[in-house]
Amino acid sequence: MKWKEQLLSLEPYKPGRPIESVKKEFGLDQVVKLASNENPFGTSQKVVAALQSVLSSFAIYPDGYAANLRSAVSEFLKVDEEQLIFGNGADNLIQIISRAFLSPGKNTVMANPSFSQYKHNAIIDGAEIREIPLIDGEHDLDAMLQAIDENTAVIWVCSPNNPTGIHISREKMTSFLKKVPEETLVVIDDAYHDYVVADDFYDAVEFVNQYKNLIVLRTFSKIYGIASLRVGYGVAHQDIIRVLEPAREPFNVNTLGQIAAVAALSDQDYVNECRRKNREGMKQFEEFCEEHQLHYFPSQANFILIDFGTNGDEVFQYLLQKGYIVRSGNALGYASSVRVTVGSNEENSGVIEAMKQYL
Ligand code: PMP
Fold first, then answer.
1. How would residue 56 be classed by pLDDT, with cut points 50, 70 and 90?
2. Which of 156, 219, 228, 342 to mutate to test the pocket of ligand 1 (most atoms within 8 A of CB)?
3. 95: pLDDT confidence band, cut at 50, 70 and 90?
4. d(CA 140, CA 109)
5. Do residues 79 and 235 make contact, with C-beta atoms less than 8 angstroms apart?
6. Residue identifier of the C-alpha nearest atom 5 of ligand 1
7. Is the dihedral angle over the CA atoms 297, 144, 162, 74 positive or is it negative?
8. Range of weakest confidence among 37-41, 50-54, 140-144, 319-323
9. Which of 203, 124, 116 is nearest to 156 (CA)?
10. Which of 24, 108, 143, 224 shows its CA 20 to 30 Å from the CA of 359?
């Protein structure tokens, strides 16, 4: 048997504990999952209605070109249809980019801690990984630029960053983009873009026509509320899309996902409402942290990383038996913290109450 040796160094991906298994373990009737940054308000009713109309047969393959979704996203973002690539979640796009651009002999630059899948895929594809520590939860873009050499194929920028929630300002982002050599692909992972309410709010897609070495990743898993249907997309110059397309599997976005994403995009009232409620929820957590003098990063996303100054695993376990699944900071590079997804008002009050009891 021949396989890539580096696969043995990787743990299988273990996402947050499933609600049912936590219920069973602790004999709880109700368990709230605030671990994976999903939309606590669920799915838009427009999406539910659109799906109900197609729930009669699953015999036909999905549209491999995602024509309707492509047309809807192209219109929404005011980009050409050929500037788009769709994925089975943004995870799939990270995998496609890695597969197309990374190999032994190449290197890739990323922040640390940041979203785990950049490194995971780079290891599988055999590239050298150059991780640049965050400063105060924020990308050190200057140090990341310095780490680039003639073999740097991809540089990953996550804004807002998972797990800190810190958003890169327009000024920093534009000055960074100007300095990246043309031969290096810049990936801006914009998974949490729709939650951003920063004063200098900007849409990274506007840079795509200016920089031919840039791809912006987005997802329907967060504010659009269809994480289980797995839809994400990338926006770039068509020369980049041309290189990525052959590395994509033919039917990577399923039919229900395509239909749901079109409906989700059409319901911007729902998106705006979720953004507003997320901000309110974030305030509940910020107030709790300030009241108890716990360090947190000011997050522009739908999660918050709270430092309890103890062991993140211990806080995680405590909250678990109280019926709240959060994410221990231990696996995220912040050993004394937990990352909590902002939930509904009631869910937030509940988990905050449990955290108070822990203190
Ligand atoms: N990028 C970031 C920064 C994320 O946090 C996530 C979700 N955890 C993804 C990408 C992947 O999202 P998707 O559900 O679209 O695969």
1. confident
2. 219
3. very high
4. 11
5. yes
6. 162
7. positive
8. 50-54
9. 116
10. 24
> What's the gap in Å between 191 CA and the centre of ligand 1?
6
- Give the whole-angstrom CA distance, residue 195 versus residue 135: 22
pLDDT of 142 reads 98
Q: Which residue among 34, 96, 162 is best mutated to probe the pocket of ligand 1, counting the most ligand atoms within 8 A of its Cβ?
A: 162
Reported as type and span, the H/E element at residue 145 is helix 141-146
Element (H, E) at 337: strand 337-341
Which residue, judged by its Cα, is nearest atom 12 of ligand 1? Answer: 90
- Interatomic CA distance for residues 353 and 230, integer angstroms: 33
Instruction: Output the pLDDT for position 333.
Output: 95
Quote ipTM for the complex.
Answer: 0.99
**Element at 20 (helix H, strand E):** helix 19-26
224 lines ligand 1 (CB under 6 A): no
- Name the token pair of 45: 């009713």
Supply 343's token pair. 């939930």
Contact 243 CB / ligand 1 (< 6 Å): no
Determine how β-strand 107-112 pairs with β-strand 128-133. parallel
Q: Which residue has the tokens 């979720």?
A: 274
Upper half-sphere CA count for residue 111 (Cβ side, 13 Å):
28
